[in-house]
Known about the structure:
Blueprint: H1 5-11, H2 16-25, E1 30-32, E2 38-40, H3 46-58, E3 67-72, E4 78-82, E5 87-89, H4 113-119
Antiparallel strand pairs: 1-2, 3-4, 4-5
Amino acid sequence: MSRQAPMRRCASPPTSRDLIAWAEALGEPTFVGSSGRVFPIAMKASPLLRKWMARLGAQGVSVRARTRWLGWDEARRPLFEHADGRVETIEVSATLLALGGASWPKLGSDGAWREIFQARGVTV
C-alpha cells in the first residue's frame, strides 16, 4: 500500500453502506429512499447530530461553534473570533475545519476563509 492510500481513503466520499453503518453505530436506523439516498428513519437529522456530537465529545474533541476561524497565529495555532469580538487561540494536536460555503452570509457563512488559504498559497 502506498503512503498516499490512507489519505485517499480519508478524502474519498463515504458510500451509502458506510453512511448506514455509521448512523446505525450511533443508534440511528436508516432507510434508502427511492432516489437511492440514505435517510434516518426519524426523518430528522438532529437526533443523529446530537449523538455524533456526544461521541466526539467523549473522544476529547472540542468544537468551536458560533465562531469565525481567523487563520493561525505565529506559532501555527488556530485563531477563532467569538460573537463578542473576543479572539481565542487554542493548542491542538489536530484541526478539522468545517467552514461552510458562501451561501448564508447573514449567518456567517460567507466563504471568507478562502482568502486565508489563498494567502498561504493553497488552491481553493
